[in-house]
Amino acid sequence: MKQPCLLFHGFTGGPYEVEPLARHLRERGQFCKVPELPWNGDSYHQLKSSRWEDWVTAAEEQAEIMTRDYGQFDMVGFSMGGLLAAYLSVRYPVRRLILLNTAVIYISPGRLLEVMRDEWKYQRKISLVKAKSTPLSATWQFTRLVRKLKPVLSQVRIPTLIAQSEKDHVIHPQSARYIYRKVRGQREIHWHPRSNHLICHSDDAAALFRQVSAFLDKEYSDDSQNKHES
């Protein structure tokens, strides 16, 4: 029987960010829970009034429900949700940890401006609209959460899959290398050259889903060190 899985979306995002992966896991017989979390982008006022500690509390509430209902479970975190997933993995009975474009090192301003220019060129303007709709106070809380939770990575000792988009315009690809160095125990890292930040909606999504399935099905020994890189 496959373990249930809890999936977290990113800062100012929503369940749609990880829903394609959740659908894939459900098709292979895995129960998936994809909650809308209080750091989502639908409520300006909720974001403006919340603090990073509130986001940690909300994440813990989800983990407590999974622990109560299922015992052990798998955990997927996207972007800021990845750091919260890592935090939960050292405090709750998480069996496998999957980190997608996890927020550790932010993208350079020059690269972000380049992406915004491209979006203006194609009249999409996604980044600009999002920047205008995100309270500055919430962005500050996001940076505080990253600073507070980064140290927890060195406490992660369960099997961990790290996936990083090479064209990510939000999280610097060096984040994946940083995480790979910090987490302890068995881990693997995968690079996705055709993907932007929304990796589950990218041209590399099918390859990512295959990697996740293989990772979840793999047998890990307690005393071996897995260092697979692709």
TrEMBL record:
> Which domain of life does the protein's organism represent?
Bacteria
Name the InterPro entries on file. Answer: AB_hydrolase_1, AB_hydrolase_fold, AB_hydrolase_sf, Esterase_lipase, Hydrolase_4
Does Cytoplasm appear among the keywords?
A: no
The identity of this protein, by name, is Esterase/lipase
Q: Which UniProt keywords apply?
A: Hydrolase
Which Pfam family name is an example for this entry?
A: Hydrolase_4
The UniProt record lists the Serine aminopeptidase S33 domain at 127-201
Please state every residue range assigned to the domain named AB hydrolase-1: 6-109
